[in-house]
Records
---
Amino acid sequence: MSDFVQEPERRTPVAARVDVLVAGAGPAGFAAAVCAAREGASVMLLEQSGAIGGVATNGLMSHWTGKTEGGFYEEILRRSEALSGGVRIAPNEHIAPRQVIDHEGLKSLMLDMLEDAGVRLRLYSFVSAPVAAGDRVRGALVESKAGREAILATVCVDATGDGDLAARAGAAYSVGRESDCRMQPVTLMLKVGGVDLSRVTYVCGFEDDWLVPGGSLQELARKRLPPPAGHVLIYPSTQPGTVVLNMTNASGVDGTDPESLTRGEAACRRQIGPILAFLRECAPGFESAYLVAASSAIGVRETRHFKGMKTITERDIAEARVFDDWVVARAYFNFDVHNIAGSGLDPTGAQKGFSQRRGYTIPYGCLVPERVDGLLLAGRNISGTHMAHSNYRVMPICANIGQAAGIAAALCAKEGLEPRALDPGRIQAVLRAAGVDPGDGSLSR
């Protein structure tokens, strides 16, 4: 686009000065803010929506995925158990009852935890650009109903998912998979009520199936749903007579482009009617099913991969590597690559075929951009390959990445250190005091 307008020079008011500024209040940003504040830092958490939790709440993700153990994630699970009086689901190899999310309850719990830690929270505030001096980030420009303001900080944590603050600060990154820059598809999660759960079989993975009177439900979906929809994923909910569906699918969407996101939102929304009609006709127990809610934020799985001081690879995960400078321990999931060109599992992915059974670690260097100072990465935007990202992008691992980033940010702010100069052993000491240790990676379940 060649057209532009010349904005007048302006003086931007400074709304706050803090030790640590966290951008984005999904699981990674929430964890970073709470953990930084618990280490004695003054912390502000910025979130563009009206709720905490990101994909875990606004995104209607049904459950905390995988078998990661320990860290701040374990505290979230423990404190969430009382929200709905304990959900009851049939034994399942994928999902434990304590992993199922009460979306509204979790929003309130997270607010309470932020308040208890002393975090200053600003919702409805969009981070538009860094405040920088050369290659050092000193804060962020924020747009809201109050206009443009600046928040200054000693250390910033980018937990925006897409790495918006880091990208605008000039941090180097790649997009999508290395061969062609294509990214995983996006999804609107659906909460569906009116379901007779006594007749339902949960379908929690692409390689799982449900044999219904018409045959394989997965095969029926591939034949009858409008592409790129075409798979069945039916998850439990904390509410009676209700399930959560991960079945809308839009490929070729760039989560950093608002026009592309709009097309993805529209494409997924147009699939809702056919998906419900398909389940009412083909899936026992869904005869009277109706839509309760669609996620208020589209689920973006993959965009920018930043170049950090270290990069975690799929081989590191497949070998359950324990790094000397680990700051996340006992992370566990599979190579969950949603089909980049259609529905179901991508040919490069591995769910049941993921044979490694030990937790892996993530090194501190993955959280530190190669060039930009005053900034840490937290969540799915850390430094990793496309395949490694398909594993660590899930919420439990992102929460524990956020924990490490928050501790590191607080230590750096307290001692006047750049993140790249911080000894990872200092972070490990705090984590070990909280019971986090990689051991040999063995998991309890």
---
Amino acid sequence: MSLQRDDGIVLRAQKLGEADRIITILTRERGRLRLVAKGVRRTTSKFGARLEPFAHVDFQTFERSCPPRPGSLAMITQAETIAPYGSSVVPDYARYTAGTAMLETAERLTEEDEPALQHYLLLLGGLRALTAGEHAPGLVLDAYILRSLAIAGYAPSFRDCAGCGNEPAEGVPWRFFSLPAGGVVCPTCKPGGSAVPQQATMELLGALLAGEWASADASEPRHRREASGLVAAYLQWHLERGLRSLRLVER
């Protein structure tokens, strides 16, 4: 038998039987876990409300066999709330849809039982930014997706050519954007079907990836919409299918 303690962010909760749930959590130490929470759907449950999506929790798990058998799920036996981000996110539609897309992105870009500290810290920071309300939810979401992709090894280039690495003249980004190439490309490397975003859109994308919030917050709505479309397309290219939650996000 094995008892372990960790803290993490609840990504998803699925019904199991009449009273239980399978909880998907992105943890600090052990990466993404799927755990069984017994009886949490009963009104008498002591910690069921603490295991809702967006919650940052400290929890204890119980494993009957050590090492665990393949396919077996550990049980959550204790859970204490560290930060109830859901209380600020869920009542607001824009925050809720952006936050849901962030949780889905975290689940898709991490592997089960594989440590993912950078993804965990990024998601934690993203939820804090979302609840603080200092930036538009759509900007927080796009910045989160770009940085998540960078952590996963798919960092896009928004200045130098993604094909040959050449720098643009006078510091102005190359005009063409290619999903297969991994970002902006010069005229020589430009493949067929490349997009031609506005220069302000490329500057916004670079600012979101770099965390230059003063520049991002000053951007115009039309450039935000174009940037969001490129971010969604770039994410879908690497995931091979899009996020279901992105369709609900206000743009």
---
Amino acid sequence: MALAILLLLAIVTGSLAGLLLVFSVDLPQIHDLERYRPSTMTDLYDIKGRVIGSFALERRVVVNYDDFAPVLRQAVISIEDKNFDSHWGINVFRIAGALWHDLRTHGRAQGASTLTMQLARNLFLSADRTAARKAQEAYLAIQIERAFTKQQIFTLYGNQIYLGSGMYGFEAASEYYFSKHAKDLTLTEAALLAGMPKGPVAYSPILNPEKALRRRNLVLSEMEGDGAITHVQAEQARNAPLGLHVNQPEMSVAPWFQEEVRRELEKRFGTEQVHEAGLRVETTLDIDLQKAANRALSDGLAAYERRHGWKGKLENVLAEGTTIDDYKHPDWATAWRPGDYVHAVVTHVFPLAIRARVGSEEIALLPEDWAWTGQRSADSLVKPGDVIYVHLGDKLEGPARRATLEQDSGTQGAVLAIDNTTGDVLAMVGGRDYALSQFNRATQAERQTGSSFKPYVYTTAIEDGAKPDDIIVDAPVSFGSYAPHNYENDFKGAMTLVNAFAESRNVPAVKLAARVGIRKVVDMAHRFGVTSNIPAYLPIALGAAEITLEEQVASYSVFPNDGIRVKPRLIRKVSNADGITLWQDAPAVDDIISQQTARSMMTLFRAVTAHGTGAAVAQMKHPLGGKTGTTSDYTDAWFLGFSPSVTCGVWVGFDSRESLGEKETGARAALPIWVDVMKVAIAGKDDERFLGDEEENPTELAGAHPPSAAPHPASPALAAPRTGVALKPVAQSSPLLANPR
């Protein structure tokens, strides 16, 4: 009998050896594994080294052997490979049994894979469950065991295995399912994760919690049978709930910025390296300023909505054939917190209360939370199934979170802030809600600029010899069939250029453009870096041109930089996983205008914020300058301005280009947002000064000549309307261009 058993074992061993020889052809060499680096996440960092986001095809956090809790290691070994510490890569008896089963049943290959074989399959082979692939697994497993220690093999396995929900490796899975590190897992948590490699979807605690519970308890029973835990420990663990604490992914603090970074990285390094090579990307973002920009835009748009009253016109999920319980809004895909603006679905309506939910969290609204609508009763505002827009508070009403009712009528906005010296993009907001629209209105939307285009006109005039104190007459004038009008539909007569600019008078701007030639103005805009096609028509002087916010902000930064343009940049340095620098981006600098022209223009910009259309900025008591912009019919509202260190621009409007409403100027709709952002940008910089302030009187620079000051004698070139000026071509008067400010 013993001889027969030995003979059988010899036959099995010889057969396996022969099969291994056959199936080892074209397999990867094991020394490749010595250089193997698992696909890891590319992390993005802000200017202070804080993580702002990541890119990955596989969400994986690589850790060392000691970073796996001993109870986790034991749980994996008990359920997956009891003889892991003693075998040499394969378990002959289990493989023989599996092959015998396959031959007898003509079915698919059975299990019997050791941890080392699973590692070999995950690293090098396909997922086909065939005898041939099993033989290849075995051959590779033997080679792996010869080259690596058991600890190294378990570490490779623990970092490579897929555990559902896009998570690879026990560390990433532990952080996702339990919001803790793998070294801190409890017995029940470790058993749950250890049971998942066999079927990451089938045993997912999120998708199939009952099956996951049964699988976890099986792992506990195996551990008890192996003597790894006591019967009492096993019973207590089997009676415990799953205990999930899912770490819901955070919405990136700067999703539009992150997407711009991804595009630039993929253009330079390729998609595969960006998403799999574990790069370290040092970006230009300042998280603190970005958060301020996010909050400022949300608050500013909420204030705009309240000014225009409650419109209703809400989406109703019941009317669309969806139940309230089944409804999921895109906002809910990421975590939210008090202070956020999110969408909610109404669940119950009472006369003096509204109940709704955001994801699984219940929220409550009381009469004071919708008082701005002018409605007393809740049932006159909403009904069950309505999708409402709310501002989450930090107080609770029983188990529900308090929130205020807001409105999302479709208004959009964008914010962009850059460092004047380096061109670093410090903050970027491309819209109201990234979950609903990934279109980046800061970099992709070309919008009419209104009077925010006038700096190109005045710069051209100053370069042509005009001075801030020169006199120009604000009086009726026509150029062929085109007769410009001022925003207020009045005329102020003789005034200095600085005051005409500060008050954003249209007639003086058109006169200047006619004097220097509109083609020169267009050329000047292109010199500043504007890439859009600008037709050489005189109304262009009042902002009929369509330009992106990014280009406008970059252009405005030239003025506090003494005429130097620094190209906006998103990335400072890229390093690989070993810390070796792959690419370092230096600021790209160009001379655009002379220092003298830039400083003359600074006099104009600072007059805007001292006593002009941007006078609300004066309350900040800091060296600042800027310019408002409003297009006809109030379709676009702008404010662009700067401190000595930061230039920031804000745009507000509808994607559909409908009117924002009567009197929604740049000063009203965009400027308050800019002020809130810049308060953070200038914090702690009380001593900063504009270039030239130490050489000239800051008071003169800031105030120039207020409207009440006596003007200088009129310049013959500017005092009266120019007649007979060659204007080719001349645009016809258009209601869309009649009164921008």
---
Amino acid sequence: MSRRTPHRAAFVAATALVLGVAGAVAASGQGALTAARVPPFSAAVTNPWFPLAPGSRYVYTGTKDGEPSRDVVTVLRRTKTVAGAPCVIVDDRLYLRGRLAERTADWYSQDTAGNVWYFGEDTAELDRQGRVRTREGSWTAGVDGARPGIFIPARPRLHQSARQEYYKGHAEDHFEVIGLFGRGAGLHPTNALLVKEWTPLEPGTIDHKLYVRGVGLVLEQTERGGDERNELVSFRQS
């Protein structure tokens, strides 16, 4: 059996929500999560805000650096042990004007409380001949001082924040929950989660991401410092 994305109207509503909330919520350090202690982990990621069922496939379309983009994200049926934690592997392939421009393997794991942790990525940007141009941004928790971070909390709270990854000078993304809503947009209450992401490595850039419970990421948009935008157009879960 396969499940398709919610009706197109849900995405239109989601877009309106992102545009309406953008810039309306001030940053806050309250509700910060830390990774002081490493809890038991599982490669079975069932967090409703970011479910990673093996075999699931997400397709996003949009723009990146002024070019039309298509991003195909597939949850593989394989796992990888990183820093002692079993992680599910997510294959991410970005196409620009139909050409494969970037390929990435991301590694996620879930703790017993339901928080989803990010344990690293193996990424490569490709030139027009398909050759690897750079692997900048790749990192592995437990190697060269890199540490995992919380990607999505189990029970998001407004202004809750955390560091999603840490490899000094290469990967230092953070997030903050800036919206928990749904009523009035054709969705049930608390069925939509809006997150702000930023990195001190690019201080002028802020991204917003919208998640729908039971689906995951449905919309990503650069609010400041760029023009990237990706919208979920197809979702299949085996």
